[in-house]
Amino acid sequence: MNLTTPVSQLNRVGKTLQKRLQILGIETVKDLLTYYPFRYEDFSQVKLIKDTKDGEQVTISGQIELLANKRSFKKRKIITEAVVVDDSDRIKIIWFGQPFIIKVLKVGDRVNLSGKVSFDMFGKQMVSPVYEKFQISNFKFQNNQTTHTARIVPIYPLTSGITQKQIRFLMSQVIDLSHELEEWLPAEILEKGDLLPLTAAVRGIHFPVDELDLKQSEKRLKFDELFILQLRAEQLRRAASQSLAPALKFYEKEIKEFVSGLPFALTGAQKIAAWEILQDLQKGAPMNRLLEGDVGSGKTVVAAMALYNTVLNGYQGVLMAPTEILARQHFDSLNKILAKKVKIGLVTSSVKELNYELRIKNKSGVKKNHNSLFIIHNSDIVVGTHALLTDDVEFKKLGLIIVDEQHRFGVEQRALLSKKSAELSPHYLSMTATPIPRSFALALYGDLDLSIINEMPVGRKLIKTRLVEPHNREKAYEFIREQVKSGRQCFVVCPLIEERIKNKEKRVSELDENKNDYSLLFTPYSFGSEKKSVLSEYEKLSKRIFPDLKIAYLHGKMKAKEKEAVMEKFRKNEIKILVSTSVVEVGVDIPNASVMMIEGAERFGLAQLHQFRGRVGRAEHQSYCFLFTDSDATKAHERLKLFEKTNDGFKLAEYDLQTRGPGEVYGTAQSGMENLRLATLKDDRIIKLAQDLARGIDFEKYPDLLERVKVWEERVHLE
């Protein structure tokens, strides 16, 4: 038997179990060895029955004195009861719904039993313990003689029809083959990182001798996962450093004049971030930096300084956003502070504009729209969406690329934009308004240098957040009405676009009979509790709650021109309440909006809720965020109560990552993070160790490391 041996050849693996193992991705011995536990039960404390305490989780060793099945009086379920004795005392054992146990165990068998001890009026008992039978004459149990008890026991992810005991039994058959696993880390890295050899780590992750063995094994295997990410990041850094970029002089006098002309003072964090970026731009190698800041922290003005300095050097700057709404937002923001200094163009699939001359006349006097190439070739700064990636687009002298919300773009998309320059490689700055804990940022964007804006502008008022109880909903509506009366506006965010129709035939007949009553389209027909949707909420608010107010809706399936028209009316305060999906999550800036009302709040992550909250509180007006939920789940209420009390996006992101995982919070397909089976974002020390040891690695000395990264990239299918 070796690592390539099919698991079907292992003892007790029939066709049925083989198929179930395939569901778990286990087809060979190697697959089995690298199928890691996700938690452990500590049954290593072995005690005499007389020494056990109430509530203690232990292992006891004894002989079965009595064993029988009986049917419970009330629920008519099968209960298996046993009495086990050792030299010190006896204990009652109970299993529910496992009548087969009396076929596995017999009176007189010697067993290990691992579980929680409890006391009642009849004495000591264990309910549903893990059991393990032995036929050893001297009845001495050592850790290396047990699989399911009397040790730190691994717990594996399972699928239907497979038990923990089956996985552990199969693992015990192949664990000695761990010595065939190829050690891929150089001895130098093992020594510097104080890491176990791979063979010892794999053995220790499945059958740890003690707590220290488990910790060391976890450290090694977590390091392996994170080191691959950091090696790839180092590769990208090396490739970038070997490219030539324009060395953009720091125009100190002009930048200082620009800053002094702003209607607000920069925060200390903004100044530091801007300085780091401007220093990078002076280098002959391409800058590769991530600018991270909380909602409303002022990233755009820092980006504007970098773009302006690029233009002063005679180069073009590009700012790319994932949506037309956000691209328009950036175009308008840059115009407010740079319009008199530079030519700014906007290129999306539906809009082409120049800030200094939106239209020109031909000889006949008929107005004619500019095309994309005209805008690009006649702009100092180009703002756009994916439209900038089309084959016919090429920039004349590209010096700086800024990509906003970079996690929404694929690696290939960003690389494609970088190749649009006809001359030197442009500098690259990524921005994100989604708070990312530093440890996660280092793992996710290991090839980027990091700048963080962790201060809010002076005078910014704290947004008051409330989780509204159902009986206070009417009070919330009255509060919104008062805000609108005072000139303010309101967002209403819902998790769905429209409700699922439960009875299609009934709905069609209703529409036939009431052709003019379009509200029937939006009547919620839901399964169980009502799930809030944009269209049903719009209908309720506009017809029943605020019939006298101008209300509109917005969602991602609308055409770009429709969305832009709605947003423009909202900006002009022609619309008082906007009902929307998460399309308003990032970048929408309506300074006059003072209320964010979130329906179905439990269905959003904390990081996303924080983004919604950041759509208000962007001016001098006191702003509010109201959370509504129909969920009775305790955990959902705990999360929302935490959100109610916490305005720090980074703290919320940390909590979200710990409870929900990176895939749910940020999406991780482009990073390879979804392939982490052991490492988590709480492993900040191992992340830092992996990054430190990857930096400056000699790939010529260790070519196998490059090959390992290549194989990994092929496996995870990076974008």
Tell me what you see in this structure:
It contains 24 helices and 24 strands. With 719 residues, it is α/β, with parallel strands linked by helices. The strands form five sheets. It has an eight-stranded mixed sheet with strand order 12-11-15-10-16-17-9-18, with helices on both faces. Strands 19-24-23-20-22-21 form a six-stranded parallel sheet, sandwiched between helices. Helix 14 (438-444) packs across helix 23 (684-694). The longest helix is centred in the first third of the chain and has 32 residues, at 211-242. The chain starts with 14 loop residues before the first helix and ends with a helix.
Q: Give the spatial strand order of the biggest sheet.
A: 12-11-15-10-16-17-9-18
Assign the CATH class of the largest domain.
Answer: Alpha Beta
Query: Count of helices?
Result: 24
Main beta-sheet strand count, sense and barrel state: 8 strands, mixed
The total number of structural domains is 4
Provide keyphrases for this structure.
Rossmann fold; 719 residues; globular; OB fold (Dihydrolipoamide Acetyltransferase, E2P); 8-stranded mixed beta sheet; alpha/beta
